[in-house]
Amino acid sequence: MKDIDKFRGCLIGGAAGDALGYPVEFLSAANIFAKYGPKGITEYEKSGGKALISDDTQMTLFTANGLLFGKTRYMTRGIGAPYEMYIARCYHDWYLTQTKSYPLEAEATCSWLVNGPELFSRRAPGTTCLSAIESGCEGTIEKPINQSKGCGGIIRVAPIGLYFSASDYEQREIDLLGARVAALTHGHELGYMPAAMLVHIISFICKYPDKKLRGAVVDSLAMLDDLFPGAIHKNYLKKLIKKAVTLAGEKMDDVEAIGQLGEGWVGEETLAIAIYCALKYNDDFDRALIAAVNHSGDSDSTGAVTGNILGTYLGLSNIPHKYQIYLELWDLLLAIADDMYNDCQIREYDSFSDETWEHKYIYHDYKI
């Protein structure tokens, strides 16, 4: 059964971790603690009264938009392309927001998210994502566009695990979609396999709300053997994630433990750090996010993925108020989460209509 609190928690949680970590993304742990004190950064650093999100949350929103765009085409026309193609088209729209000015003129777009100035802010977008989209090519697992394993593949796929969690899709197909979406821009095995694992973890949490978070992680490891039996780097990924699980059960300083997992600039390290933080503080969203961003590395990405996982596990109702009140695009994140939860109700031969939905996902002219 779908739980709207988990849908909202996943997107708001991910954005919260992103916003907390964004100001310290390029700082060493020593510099973070020197600037913010012995506990590191524990509160939002605001600009214009808002805690700013980065490209991680921007691309997550465009992933969700692509899913809903694709589903609406299926529902209203009876046929459609693979979901990753709709998401790829929405990523092109995100690319326009990073390279052009608002409003867009004479551009064919597929996402209503481009209809407001908020998403036209350039927040340290990943060069691999930009170059891959600019090339006009769409990578696949079978024909990779490059050999990048940067974390740009994993940070944007959480909506896939949410969206299909209550569907009749086979779990392996849901997980594989996560990998395919990451492979659009990141062709290395470690660029897309961690994305499949994150999708699996998010989906597992939604499907089995009474099971422990550790069970979701363990199940995602088993998924790797089924989905990528011949992958060259699979065993390395499994070893790193198992190490994260082990470290989460030990009494060790978080900075020291995270240092054993990496810095988070690449996909497998981002996932490992997020799993460590989410498991160690599985009932405390605040402590998990603080641990996830106070290290020498890609703090906004590790914060975002930690927030996706624990936000889904705990739900929006258990995300502290301090992470919501100043969060940039809070209303938009909530609206997209609710759209994924409610889904398209329009059918090809049905008289039912939804004007707002049509302007979002058919005409793409809905104003933010």
Please provide a written account of the structure.
- The chain has helices spanning 4-21, 29-36, 55-77, 83-99, 127-134, 158-163, 171-183, 189-207, 213-227, 234-248, 254-259, 267-280, 285-293, 299-314, 330-342, 355-361.
- By secondary structure, the chain is mainly α.
- The protein has a single domain (4-39, 48-361), classed as ADP-ribosylglycohydrolase fold (Orthogonal Bundle), CATH 1.10.4080.10.
- Helix 1 (4-21) runs antiparallel to helix 3 and helix 3 packs across helix 4 (83-99).
- The protein starts with a helix and ends in a 7-residue tail after the last helix.
- The mean pLDDT is 97.
Detail the topology: elements first, then pairings:
Elements: H1 4-21, H2 29-36, H3 55-77, H4 83-99, H5 127-134, H6 158-163, H7 171-183, H8 189-207, H9 213-227, H10 234-248, H11 254-259, H12 267-280, H13 285-293, H14 299-314, H15 330-342, H16 355-361
